[in-house]
Structures are given as C-alpha cells and as structure tokens.
Design brief:
The protein has 577 residues and is of the alpha/beta class. 44% of the residues lie in helices and 11% in strands.
Length: 577
C-alpha cells in the first residue's frame, strides 16, 4: 500500500447519516461542491502518486455525495467529501467511483460534512483555511461570535482569517506555487496582504516580490533559513506604503482636485477598514500612524504637489534644480521629465549650501527620501567667493573648448545608444545567427562576470535558490551561459549610464564603452561617425569664423582706455595749495 493510500485510510470519517450506503456512480455524473475550500493541484507529485494507485487498484475509500438540486445541470451529484479521489479517478480514466449518496440531508448538514472532511486536515493551505472559515460564517449567518466559539478562536482571528478570501488572484496563485517565495508564508502573513486593496496587493507583489529574489527568507544561523516574522512583513508593507503624516502637502490646495486625505476611505484608520488595521492603532507608540492604502492616489497627489512647488519656487527665485536622492531607473527619469518638464539632477553632482552663499540655488527633491522638500545647493567646485554663479562675463569660450564639449556631447549620445544595444543583446548558441554574445566567447563572458559581478538581489539564499543551482549545474553549457549573460547584461548596461552633463563625458567611460562594444562585436567608431552627421551634433558653420580664443576673426580690437596722469595732477594741486 502506498503512502497516499495509507493517508486516505487514516483520514477521519465524515458524519454518518441513516440514508447512506455505498454504491457505484459514474464519474461524469459528479461535480465538486462550491463549499469545499480545498484547491487540488493536479500536477503535484502526491496527486500523481494517487492517480497511479487508483489505476492499479481503484478507490479504497468511497466519496460522499448528495443529489444535485433541480437546477437543470447535467451533473446528478454534488461531491461533499473526496473531491481529490474523484479527480484522481477522472485522471486515471475510471468510468465510475464508489460513493455514499446522502439523499435526505439538509444544507446545514451538507456544510458539516464538507467542513469536517476538509478543515481538520493538517495540510490545509492558508487560503483553503480562510475559505473554510468563510463557509462557517456563512453557515452561522455571519455570527462571528458563534464561529469563534466553535473554533475556540478569538473573534478578531476569525475576522482576519475569513478576510483571506479578499486575497488577489495574483497572490493566491503565488501562494499555491511551490516555486514562488510567497508559498512559504503562513495564514498570518497572508492576512496582512489581504487587508490591502487588490490593486495595491498586485503592485506590492510586482515591485517587491516578482523580480526581487526571495524577500521572505532570512538567515537563521549555521545552515538554517527561516521565514520572516509577521512583524517584519508589516515593516516591508509600511515601507512600501506611505504614512499619511509624512505627506509634504499640508492642505487640499497643494493637491488640486484630488480627494483629501483626511476623509479618504482608503486610509488604514478609516472606519470602513474595521479591525483590519487594529495593530497599527496599537503600534503608534512604535512610530506608526495611519497609512495610505492607495499608492496610485498618493503618487498622483505627489506629482500635483511637485508641479505646484516647482512653479512656486521658479516664480520666487527665477531658477530651480530638480534633485534625485539616489539612482533612478530610466523609466522613472522619463516619467519625472514628462511630469515636470525638466531634467532631474543627482545629489552627488552638488554640494550642500546655505541660502546666503553666492552661487547657491534652490533644489526641489523629486525622488528618494525627503521628496517634496527644498534644499539649497551649488555645483561641486563652487566657492563662496562667487566664482561659480557670478554674473560677471567670463569672455568668449575658446574654440578648442567648444570642440571638446561637442565631442563629449557626441559620445554621450553614443553611450546612450550603445546601452540600449546592450539591453537588447541576447546570448547566441553556437551555430545560430543573431546579434549579441556568441557561444564561442564564453571565456570572455565568464571573465567579465568575475570582474564586474552580476545583477542579483537574492539576499540570503533560500533552498529554492539551491534548487535553481542544481538545475543549472545539470543543464547544458548554452543554458548555463545564457543565464550568466542575463545576469551580467544589466551590469554592463549600468556601466554605460553617465551621471555627468552631456558635455562632460569622462574619457575613461568612453574607453570602457569601446571595450564593451568590442566584446559584443559592435563597431563603436561607426556609431560615433553616424552621430556626428546628425542635426545638433555637427560643428556649427559659424565656428569657421572664430579665432582660437573664441572671438570672431573680423572683430575690431577693443580701444585701450587712457590712463590718467595721477602724478601731474598731484603736482598742480600742490602748486595751487
């Protein structure tokens, strides 16, 4: 007897009713009950083991069914217990299955059978458990106190567990997938996710889980790893959302026609949220307060506020720098420029200054910590003497300097286009054609990965990452090298991202671009020649009429001012006196 058969024999028997006896019914005449909270994964190894067992010796434990209500459905029976055995029989292509038919039971008694059969299982998943509690609540007409008494739980625990039915489909799928890091989370963890609006749940998954390795596993010492605590997950969610008290805007005038935060129904302390965020109310002593549960609305308000402050500061001071604290992605840079109509600069391009310092300019933080705040900064190298930012004319720019800046501008464009090529480049196995990294360059690929590292955010490696290691170790060379290139590619692309002005491209960066282009078999000199012919990158015709010092060739020399004869004037004044 297999382990699956043994487990089936040891499963608790459902309540026995007088009208029940075992008979054989057609597999096609049955349909699962909507009251059953269990989700059967027909691809799971244990399920496939059960299918093989039924193929060999049939079903040993009868399923429990009741006649379907007269709804016109083609199925004759509703499965109350044994859905997994019925599905395995179907997969094993069995025509019939042993069943106990309960013909004279009420709906309440049917719920008892479903609940007894499924809720008592030790392997019930958090989502199945939440569905079972919801069924109990429905049976007791929503009486939380009655269900809490039956389960010997607190009323708050019943409400939170039943709220798991509001978990988004994306999270339900992730929690059921053994390869997804979310599958490690307990019901208590998933309750914290389920209390967020479904759109917020999905964005949180995409931005903090989807491509970020395993954020739910932490190092437990030695060779052990453990799932993060519920408190740690709370901290992750609080970091993703926004404390309303941290909003830089102070009134509705700063956020236009968008709904005010004070009366919003998507804040955690709103009465509509009930007890879902009671822990936050108790946790204010730990620095927590009401959270905004709608990041989309928050971001829209932030954009309106930044536009309002930008116009206000420009009107007041005449000029303004938009500052990013920390790196931003290309998509973020593009979105900020589109929203604010101005390039965003990085904080490391400036030094802090006082408002009274000469050369100091106001800077509005538009990305990173302190978003919405105003600082005073000046470019590196500025001095309080006013050399940088001085209103005095510095004279014409030498022709050599103009050409150096034009050359730098051309290379900045080449770097941008090369970075785009790197981001699109793929790994090309031996014998295939295409543009990218070819298999015969594997020594160079491995060497670059050793020197520059790879793009990974896995943190401490959970067991699932070791599973990936064993899979890659057993894979063929092309698969392994292809995976390596996927991890190295964003690192090389990032090395081509310049944080300097377009006329200040470092020579070292140009040299590195040449090496990366050579590795990818890209003619970077041809790219430079092509850019040099484009509008905006050609040398202006007016430069042909300039001297080396930048002044026009036909310019008339400036007249020298006559010096006063201070000595003679003094002598005349002396005679008069």
């Amino acid at each position: 007897m297999t382990a699956v058969q043994e487990k089936a024999r040891q499963a608790p028997d459902p309540p026995v009713f007088a009208d029940g006896h075992v008979e054989r019914i057609r597999v096609g005449d049955c349909t699962p009950s909507k009251m059953n909270p269990r989700i059967v994964n027909e691809k799971a190894p244990k399920f496939l083991e059960l299918v093989k067992s039924i193929e060999a010796s049939g079903v040993h434990v009868a399923i429990v069914v009741r006649p379907m209500p007269a709804t016109g459905a083609k199925e004759k029976y509703e499965i109350l217990s044994g859905e997994r055995r019925w599905r395995a029989s179907k997969a094993a292509k069995k025509s019939d299955v042993p069943a106990i038919v309960r013909r004279n039971i009420t709906d309440e008694e049917a719920v008892d059978i479903v609940f007894f059969e499924n809720f008592g299982r030790e392997d019930l998943s958090p989502i199945e458990e939440g569905k079972a509690v919801a069924i109990m609540l429905e049976k007791h007409s929503g009486d939380v106190k009655a269900v809490a008494g039956a389960l010997k739980w607190s009323e708050h625990a019943v409400r939170m567990r039943a709220h798991l039915k509001h978990l988004s489909k994306k999270w339900q799928k992730a929690a059921a997938d053994e390869k997804d890091p979310a599958s490690q989370l307990t019901a208590a963890h998933l309750e914290r996710i389920a209390r967020l609006p479904k759109g917020t749940q999905d964005r949180f998954y995409d931005e903090r889980v989807g491509n970020c390795g395993d954020p739910f596993t932490t190092y437990g010492g030695g060779d052990s790893y453990q799932v993060i605590s519920v408190q740690k997950l709370d901290d992750m969610i609080a970091d993703y959302l926004h404390m309303i008290s941290s909003a830089p805007w102070k009134g509705d005038a700063d956020t236009g026609s968008l709904p005010p935060c004070a009366t919003c129904t998507t804040r955690s302390d709103c009465a509509l949220q009930g007890e879902l965020f009671a822990d936050l109310a108790q946790g204010r002593k730990n620095g927590r307060s009401a959270m905004c549960l709608n990041p989309g609305c928050w971001n829209a308000k932030m954009t309106v506020y930044l536009q309002h402050r930008q116009a206000e500061l420009k009107e007041k001071y005449g000029g303004l720098v938009l500052l990013s604290k920390g790196r931003t992605s290309r998509a973020q840079e593009k979105a900020l420029k589109q929203d604010l109509g101005q390039e965003v600069k990085y904080e490391w391009d400036f030094q802090s200054a006082k408002k009274a310092d000469k050369g100091a300019v106001p800077a509005l933080v538009v990305s990173g910590s302190g978003k919405g705040k105003v600082r005073w900064v000046k470019p590196h190298g500025s001095r309080s003497s006013g050399r940088v930012g001085s209103t005095k004319a510095s004279g014409p720019k030498p022709l050599k300097k103009r050409r150096e800046e034009l050359d730098s501008k051309r290379w900045a464009q080449v770097l941008k286009e090369l970075r785009e090529k790197v981001e699109r480049a793929s790994f090309i196995p031996e014998g295939e054609e295409g543009r990218g990294v070819i298999e015969e360059d594997w020594e160079a690929l491995v060497s670059m990965a050793v020197v520059f590292g790879t793009d990974h955010r896995n943190g401490y490696y959970a067991p699932r990452f070791w599973e990936k290691y064993h899979r890659l170790y057993a894979a063929d060379e092309n698969t392994l090298l292809g995976e390596l290139w996927e991890k190295l590619r964003p690192v090389l692309a990032d090395r081509l991202r310049s944080h300097h002005g377009v006329t200040q491209t470092p020579l070292a960066m140009i040299e590195e671009a040449r090496r990366i282009a050579g590795f990818l078999k890209i003619d970077i000199e041809a790219m430079y020649a092509d850019v040099s012919k484009r509008k905006g990158f050609t040398e202006p015709k007016s430069w042909a009429n300039l001297k080396a010092d930048g002044t026009p060739k036909n310019a008339k020399p400036a007249k020298k001012a006559k010096k006063k004869a201070f000595g003679k004037t003094t002598k005349k004044k002396a005679k008069r006196s």
